[in-house]
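Q: A reviewer asked whether we had any structural model of the full assembly, not just the individual parts. We don't, so I'm hoping you can provide one. Inputs are below.
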Amino acid sequence: MKILLVNPNATASMTDKIAASARRVVGPGVEIVARTGEGSPASIEGHHDEAMSVPTLLRHVRAGEEQGVAGVVVACFDDPGIGACRELATGPVIGIAEAAMKAATMLATSFSVVTTLPRSVPVIEELARRYGVDHQCRKVRSASIPVLALEEEDSGAREKVRDEILRAIREDNCEAIVLGCAGMADLTDWLSRETGVPVIDGVTVAVKFVEGLAGIGLGTSKICAYAQPNQK
Amino acid sequence: MKILLVNPNATASMTDKIAASARRVVGPGVEIVARTGEGSPASIEGHHDEAMSVPTLLRHVRAGEEQGVAGVVVACFDDPGIGACRELATGPVIGIAEAAMKAATMLATSFSVVTTLPRSVPVIEELARRYGVDHQCRKVRSASIPVLALEEEDSGAREKVRDEILRAIREDNCEAIVLGCAGMADLTDWLSRETGVPVIDGVTVAVKFVEGLAGIGLGTSKICAYAQPNQK
Amino acid sequence: MKILLVNPNATASMTDKIAASARRVVGPGVEIVARTGEGSPASIEGHHDEAMSVPTLLRHVRAGEEQGVAGVVVACFDDPGIGACRELATGPVIGIAEAAMKAATMLATSFSVVTTLPRSVPVIEELARRYGVDHQCRKVRSASIPVLALEEEDSGAREKVRDEILRAIREDNCEAIVLGCAGMADLTDWLSRETGVPVIDGVTVAVKFVEGLAGIGLGTSKICAYAQPNQK
Amino acid sequence: MKILLVNPNATASMTDKIAASARRVVGPGVEIVARTGEGSPASIEGHHDEAMSVPTLLRHVRAGEEQGVAGVVVACFDDPGIGACRELATGPVIGIAEAAMKAATMLATSFSVVTTLPRSVPVIEELARRYGVDHQCRKVRSASIPVLALEEEDSGAREKVRDEILRAIREDNCEAIVLGCAGMADLTDWLSRETGVPVIDGVTVAVKFVEGLAGIGLGTSKICAYAQPNQK
Amino acid sequence: MKILLVNPNATASMTDKIAASARRVVGPGVEIVARTGEGSPASIEGHHDEAMSVPTLLRHVRAGEEQGVAGVVVACFDDPGIGACRELATGPVIGIAEAAMKAATMLATSFSVVTTLPRSVPVIEELARRYGVDHQCRKVRSASIPVLALEEEDSGAREKVRDEILRAIREDNCEAIVLGCAGMADLTDWLSRETGVPVIDGVTVAVKFVEGLAGIGLGTSKICAYAQPNQK
Amino acid sequence: MKILLVNPNATASMTDKIAASARRVVGPGVEIVARTGEGSPASIEGHHDEAMSVPTLLRHVRAGEEQGVAGVVVACFDDPGIGACRELATGPVIGIAEAAMKAATMLATSFSVVTTLPRSVPVIEELARRYGVDHQCRKVRSASIPVLALEEEDSGAREKVRDEILRAIREDNCEAIVLGCAGMADLTDWLSRETGVPVIDGVTVAVKFVEGLAGIGLGTSKICAYAQPNQK
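A: Here is a predicted structure for the entire assembly that you could use as a starting point for your response.
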């Protein structure tokens, strides 16, 4: 089984990091086909970046379908272009925000999200509401770091994320933490150990959900909203 | 005052029709700058078409800003790319679905939407929920016509829209009708007369809301979510 | 086009101030017919005052209809008697809370309201929920000033409002401010400059919304809830 | 213990009927002080009638306080002026819609409401949402009868109410019926027998809730929203 | 009229305390049949304890039915097994959380809950949402005391509850307090006096609601969800 | 990795069927430990049966923990005792309703549920609301068959389920079907072929979700609500 894993931004090092996380968790016989959003913004910070990343993302999904991938993971916490990807795909398509937030509700009665920049906070709050988990999402917090700082060894970004998680535990009365950026995938284990709470990374969860759903033969419904795009 | 009116799809005849509707209602001294989504899908039918239309839409918004437009109307009932447009714009940016549905709640306790294809129904239902008017939206209905049938004189499309409105009145217990496609803008008066209910077209409402808000000096907040896109 | 602007309380100086704000923003040929709630409470502070102001408000609406007004603005942030006014009116009827809060959601992802007295906070919170914008309303705050202090030059009221706005910006993570009292209409520009955030006054927004909707021929639906009162 | 029972409309025969229902259910030592909305509309059919009935209702509440009533029941299913009454009262104030709908949720997982005229349907739907029981309210139905037809022996009104209840049972999948008009109070037993479902009349429920809450020493909170009206 | 009052936990001293509270408020001729959850956990602290207490609770309800009780009060603030009890009962069955929270919304625009242990907070938050009062519940707070500390004279528990109420008043902007544990029933009057806010104890409210509803002939609907358990 | 799969009812043939479904889909090295609710009701039809099945369910979970299971699936569509199980477990605990309904929202914009008896409909509606998917759940339908009819070859039960699915497709405008009973697990493939829509069985989905979450090291949060039961 091949699973297409698209990092919608243009930063290949982030794709590598995400793909490595994914490969560590998939079952035997599952191949991760990792793609980068070449020509898209270097990071997805807000609605504009998100919108500009979707055409390339869709190109990768179309190509993946031709290769016969079993499902798709969109590895950006804004869940860009999910509906459009679902129209193109036959297998399941899952964004990492949806995966992580719904997983959190299976493991805890409430969670907080820690993301990168303040401008992503309202975007994620709206996703929480769209996915029907807003009553379980205590707070969406930002560590006030640009996405790409997560790629730099000495930026202090990981410590800022850890400190924001510790603040969430103290102030939010939350039972789990959702990491609000694909670029934090490699920090998950360290953050769990440092903070003592379940830390949920959407990349690995989404990959396992796609693997699981595709494995039992479930794919995207083609009946109405997610039917193939109309020919004109 | 210039108002940028973008038809996100590639069909110029639809732009002309929409622009004519808009020009009929603006106040003295207001100029409608109408733009078409060249290279975008010929009609927006679902998430994929919507996503593919946004880059050109954003190009028009950026150009409009350079020309000093006072605000922007996005004339497609899926409200594509609104958040991204708001990041680029200084004046108000309003999509026709948000305008029409919020106007409906100022004029009636409930409304139904009549759109073109069934696949747009879930898209519009989600918009109604996002805008907080789902408890006042009785039903989203489709007249089962492709968007472009509205451009053909003899397609029978307008009669189908009228018949669906009459069904909504009979079955939904609604007090107003929202037209669920920019391409219906020229039918508004005829449909009102034929059906006897208030029929709300988002294009004219959105244009007047932008004109009104810009006229009193209000623009898009630049504080957090809708700040200019970050430079990387 | 005549627009009826009713200040539901008995304080004529407030009516003058509100009418002046309205007249500054209307288009050419639009006449503001301003009315005061003679015999009603001097200010609307809570449910009781609100209820007692409605009969005179309705008398003004009935008189306005006879004069052929195109629409009605109710200039009190509790939105008193809106449903009853809509039954009497043919044109649009908009309260300033509904106008300001819905406008805020077109310009920002979230807002806070700053009103006068603490007792108005739950009233406004319920309005936000009724209008479906509670998920975008960060907090309703009071500046702890009586409404009529806004009419006194040296009461320090305007400074208290400004300080509460600054607190909202610091603490609420909001992107815009809605002024929660008609009596603050004249402070809008000053508060915007002092605080650096978009400050939304419902009086001017409501007037432009009524002007816009009436201008394109839309009025209150007469089909069910807002039909003329039944004769007995 | 005295309980003030106000029929907000001007029809004394309806007050008598309601008071008789109330007196049948109160405990020993409880006196029902029944009042009519003299000068108010003869029936409350919509927002306008409701608004016009409140000043007299408030006068009765003020007088009741002077007489030392232990609590207040407002016997109109639109729950007019409840917030204003609560500001004036020290004991509990309960409207019959709130009482009946909340009681229904203690006895069944869902209910439908049967009211008089179609124009009251959206009013009651909004009350259900305000009271947080909209997810348990299957449907608000009207029997298409004017309120005062309930006062006429030969109007066929009671049969129409019964038939609408039977339709609700067949079509709504509801487990209980709430009577949506105070004027139906005397039909409760007959309707229960005729239809075989629990039929809930708000008058008796509200009276028992007021009696119960006042009996254990609970009254309206005077802390913020329901404090006595401000002196100016 | 007999009312069955079940304390679902195994602590008989708590049953005695609760029964005493109930007996003080019932009308003449009402007998409180008090039962303890023998063999169940000594206190209900979380989902596990709650689940383990239900079989004995149901046995008491079944026995009560045989004795002809008119209704049932379940005296634990987690409202354990309410649906199951309703299937067995003919009269009304009310849990103390539902009773107290719904009563609070009849007396105030908002309330906070003060419970015992932090682990009960999410349980009560979910109840508030299920009962549709989450928009009126400012905060669920814990006094950080085990349930059984309320049974010990010198545990300092009552002072901790009082202090938490005072914190709620200062920080939550709430207008009433709901006591989040049956074991606090005897503190109600003292807490009211000490804090100056309406303090609502679910035991007495639930008893009066059951007495009132049963008194007017209302019982649990037997139509669908709450029909007697199916024989297999 | 061992996954504990508990059928909460007492019908061993149903356990076998469910376990067979589960074993078909798990990855290499995953062992399904299947348990039956000995002494519990033969089928779970309503709140009473559900409550009576939980103590044995919890005993199996406790035993599973001692055996070191990696996670737990509760195979009854009422999701009985999930919170209590989560307190006892270290790994993930997922009920089949939560799994199936959340999976449905990853594959379609809307779904309908087809369950067995009408009395389960309100139970499932409440679960949908608790899980935040009520806005995507078009309708919960019953095929009007007792649960155990699914165990009898000639009961016609499977045809009734199929017919109800076909009705859902025609009438509900849904894009996927969720099977509302664990006993339908073996019908999934046949129902998909017969109806042409994605048919989602919670047993297999829940097993894969538990396998996936446990596989990446995620378990139930032990911080607050789901901490181990308190010792007294």
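A: Points you may want to mention in the reply: The mean pLDDT of chain F is 97. Residues 47-67 of chain F form the longest helix (21 residues).
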